Amino acid sequence: MEAETAEQPVRAEAEAQLQEIQMLKDKLEAAENRYLRLQADFDNFKRRTRLDQEAGEKYRAQKLVTDLLPVLDNFGRALEIEADNEQTKSVLQGMDMVYRSLIDALKKEGVEPIEAVGKEFDPHQHHAVMQGDDAAYGSNIVIEEFQKGYLLKDRVIRPSMVKVNQ
Amino acid sequence: MEAETAEQPVRAEAEAQLQEIQMLKDKLEAAENRYLRLQADFDNFKRRTRLDQEAGEKYRAQKLVTDLLPVLDNFGRALEIEADNEQTKSVLQGMDMVYRSLIDALKKEGVEPIEAVGKEFDPHQHHAVMQGDDAAYGSNIVIEEFQKGYLLKDRVIRPSMVKVNQ
Fold first, then answer.
1. How far does the CA of residue B32 sit from the closest CA of chain A (Å)?
2. Where do the coiled-coil regions begin and end (chains A, B) (predicted)?
């Protein structure tokens, strides 16, 4: 018992050390878990950022393209006039070249007209404003287009306004 | 000495525990520093991403705008014809409206023509292709514009081609 009494403070110290070791191990584990969670957050953020950037890049011109569609519509209509003299004919030819260069510039950015007449009606691309009954076409086929629709890459910027066969 | 001998293994254990405590403290400090570094990296990445997105957003339409400038040039030139009859006059009026709506759509995106004639020559905005000697203007003043230049917000997309007074 003599020796045991002498060991008493040593044992108490050892006990306290064991507790500190456990506390440090817990803290270390917590710190490592916190690091792993932050690493996972960071990876997620990078991935989302990359996807956002890709989408932003892909559709970057959407606002300008949307604003240009009425210009295209009016330009197309202005070209439909029937020339009754040589000068008007020549002006219209020149303007038609400008019109086509405008369409080409938009095409380079990924803008394409939506195919409509003769195609099966697609509610994602076509907006049906009338129903028709034309024996020459099958059921649910677009038979007339009132306003051209446009895609920017795979995104519908404006649906076509169409007449669909019953 | 009896007691000391009995304490020997306990002391050795305590020593080992102290070493483990020090090792754990070092590891914990290292883990916390690693966390702080990662946190700083993450913050930097977020800040850079936000700046990139702002710049990307600001100049998003640059490519399409660049492709539209020759269309604008040709459109402007095609409108300069002198009508010799009523139909041509009416067609040109209609086309002038289309032209102005094209310029308006570009303006909404932040595209503005660069001011040139009468302004002091600015090598960042003007490209001097000729020198003039016109007593009506001061020195280093733009006295003629051969091709219009354009800004997208604060960025020169195409400088004006000009004649500068000596």
1. 6
2. 11-48
Task: Give the gap in angstroms from C-alpha A72 to the nearest C-alpha of chain B.
Answer: 8
d(Cα A70, Cα A125) in Å, to the nearest integer?
Answer: 18
Please determine, for the modelled complex, whether the ipTM score is greater than 0.90. no
Tokens of B42: 């993450």
- Residue closest to B49 by CA, chosen among A48, A37, A62, A35: A48
How far off is chain B from A119, nearest CA to CA, in Å? Answer: 30
Residues B27 and B68 placed together within one structural domain of the fold = no
Domain membership of residue A6 as a residue range: 1-58
CA distance A164 to A132: 6
What is the residue-averaged pLDDT of chain B? Answer: 92
What's the domain count of chain A? 2
Partner-chain contact B45 A42, CB within 8 Å: yes
| CATH code of the domain covering residue B117 | 2.30.22.10
- Alpha carbons A23 and A30: distance in angstroms, whole number: 10
Q: Do A78 and B68 touch (CB under 8 A)?
A: no
Q: Are residues B52 and B77 in the same domain?
A: no
A60 contacts on B by Cβ (under 8 Å): 56, 60-61
Closest listed residue to residue B102, CA positions, set B115, B113, B87 = B113
**pLDDT higher than 70, residue B2:** no
Is residue B83 located within the same domain as residue B36? no
| Residue pLDDT, tens place only, B113-145 | 999 999 999 999 999 999 999 888 899 999 999
Based on the fold, state whether residues B49 and B68 are members of the same structural domain.
Answer: no
Domain boundary among A58, A74, A92: A58
Are B25 and B77 in a shared domain?
Answer: no
pLDDT per position as a tens digit, A35-72 = 999 999 999 999 999 999 898 889 999 999 999 999 99
Shared domain check, B69 and B21:
no
- Say which residue the tokens 């649910």 belong to: A140
**Residue A4: per-residue pLDDT:** 52
CA–CA dist B27, B32 (Å, integer): 9
Testing the interface with B: which of A34, A38, A64 to mutate, by most B Cβ within 10 A?
A64
* Contact between A101 and B61 using a beta-carbon 8 Å cutoff: no
Of all residues in chain A, the one with the smallest CA distance to B66 is: A105
Interval A95-102 mean pLDDT: 97
